[in-house]
Amino acid sequence: MKTPERAAFDALPHPTVVVVGGGFAGLELIKRLAGKPFKVILLDKNNYHCFQPLLYQVATGSLGADNIAHPFRRTVGPMPNVIYRMGEVLRVLPEENCVETDHGKVAYDHLVLATGTVTNFFGNQRIAHEAMQLKSIGQALDIRSDFLQEFEAAVYLEDEHAQRQRLNFVIVGGGPSGVELAGALAEIRKTILKHEFREVENQRMQIHLVDGGNEVLGSFSTQAQQRALKYLQELGVVVEFGARVTEYDGDTLRFQDGRTLHSTTVIWTAGVKGAPVPGLENSLEERPARYKVDAFNRVADTANIYAVGDIALDMSDPAWPKGHPQVAPVAIQQATHLAKNLLRKSNAAWAPFKYRDKGSMATIGRYKAVVDLGKLKFGGPVAWFTWLFVHLMSIVGFRSRVMVLTHWAWKYLSWKNTIRLIIRPYVRKEYKVAEPVAEKAG
Ligand SMILES: Cc1cc2nc3c(=O)[nH]c(=O)nc-3n(C[C@H](O)[C@H](O)[C@H](O)COP(=O)(O)OP(=O)(O)OC[C@H]3O[C@@H](n4cnc5c(N)ncnc54)[C@H](O)[C@@H]3O)c2cc1C
């Protein structure tokens, strides 16, 4: 028998909007459609929204996983016209107006795809297997366990070379994720390694940030790039440009120019690609694996399917000929805009999407950050407090905000990262070369 709430939902005389993915875009969309004349079904393979910009703080033990995750059921609880279903969407069946999930089919009148991105290893299977990633909470916890395990293992080693190899951390990719992670690891050397692993000479820990280009924070202003580089170098991060990685076997990293670097921990932040759902291959731009959409976020060659956020590629705006940047504000603005359009009476009244770029910011260790706000560009402690405030206010849920503030206050006043627990040890899996498929005789 149905609960009264479920019966009331089913009886709503409204069209059904199925939203796949509860990241920045999906979450904003359901909030905008709450209480409006739609039946909304949110599908996500995880039962929580993840605040990805702070993943590096989970990876480096400053925040707990639950500080940056918010359960979908708590969000949709007060929304009678919105329900959540945990499930992975396996295929879109446009001719049937439904999606196939690992729990069966879900029908829609309007479908919104907001599945975001995954790490892009540019086809290199071996690197994908050996390197660590920073795209999910599970991966952030792996990095946290890994660096603590490496510290614990280094304590046993007498040989300097072997110890250095264990304490060599390489981050590939000088974008915001790589820069923020490198800064946080450098802080760990100054704090945790120095004070709590006193048997290890802390200068033996090296943090390398390698990038194939010739600057960090490629999408930021030149001032921000130069400031960020200076901050990283002040923290003792070894920044190497023109360093194009070609191979990594779990021990040795090889570069295109023949150089090598020995490390048991390589974290790959060098790119992302879309996470499309099978079934709409004709509407995909293959290289970044993003759905081609028009200015209304409608997926190419479809009538009632939309894509928003990182997975959408809208090249209709002359200001962004290669599509919008894959950042949270784009995702949120597209979702807000799509909700407004869906609520308009006729299609003729739909307005095209225009992105309002409000600026970018990145933090590089304590009291150091860079902020680009249009013509206003600044760094140092003011930028750092700006970064802190903006991120704190953006976290979903009052409880999480209070928890994050408490952790940060403790960390920045006591100089101690709070969470140094190896709850779920990180175990590297052995790499197996795929067996060639034997040809059938006859
Ligand atoms: C480490 C890191 C740091 C970042 N820092 C910043 C920053 O400082 N500022 C900034 O603006 N942006 C930052 N970004 C980028 C920002 O997080 C993304 O632009 C944003 O998350 C995109 O939102 P989205 O809704 O498109 O996708 P996502 O937030 O990635 O959400 C996608 C959702 O879809 C779900 N999903 C995927 N596939 C399926 C499926 N088949 N079935 C069911 N569910 C599915 C996932 O579980 C997820 O919940 C950062 C990203 C990372 C990884």
Descriptive overview:
The protein is of the alpha/beta class. It is built from 12 helices and 25 strands. The protein has helices at residues 4-11, 24-33, 55-59, 72-76, 125-130, 137-156, 160-166, 176-196, 222-234, 328-342, 380-394, 398-414, and strands spanning 16-20, 39-44, 48-50, 69-71, 82-86, 89-93, 98-101, 104-107, 110-113, 117-119, 168-172, 206-210, 238-240, 245-248, 252-255, 260-262, 265-268, 272-274, 284-285, 290-293, 305-307, 312-314, 360-363, 369-373, 376-379. The strands form 8 sheets. The chain has a 5-stranded parallel beta sheet with strand order 5-2-1-9-21. The protein has a 4-stranded parallel beta sheet with strand order 13-12-11-17. A 3-stranded antiparallel beta sheet has the order 6-7-8, with no helix packed on it. α2 (24-33) packs parallel to α10 (328-342) and α6 runs antiparallel to α7. The structure holds flavin-adenine dinucleotide.
Helix and strand arrangement:
Elements: H1 4-11, E1 16-20, H2 24-33, E2 39-44, E3 48-50, H3 55-59, E4 69-71, H4 72-76, E5 82-86, E6 89-93, E7 98-101, E8 104-107, E9 110-113, E10 117-119, H5 125-130, H6 137-156, H7 160-166, E11 168-172, H8 176-196, E12 206-210, H9 222-234, E13 238-240, E14 245-248, E15 252-255, E16 260-262, E17 265-268, E18 272-274, E19 284-285, E20 290-293, E21 305-307, E22 312-314, H10 328-342, E23 360-363, E24 369-373, E25 376-379, H11 380-394, H12 398-414
Parallel strand pairs: 1-2, 1-9, 2-5, 9-21, 11-12, 11-17, 12-13, 20-22
Antiparallel strand pairs: 3-4, 6-7, 7-8, 10-18, 14-15, 15-16, 19-20, 23-24, 24-25
Helix pairs in contact: 2-10, 6-7
The structure holds flavin-adenine dinucleotide.
Flavin-adenine dinucleotide is lined by residues 20-26, 43-46, 52-53, 55-56, 88-89, 114-117, 134-135, 176-177, 275, 277, 309-311, 326-329, 331.
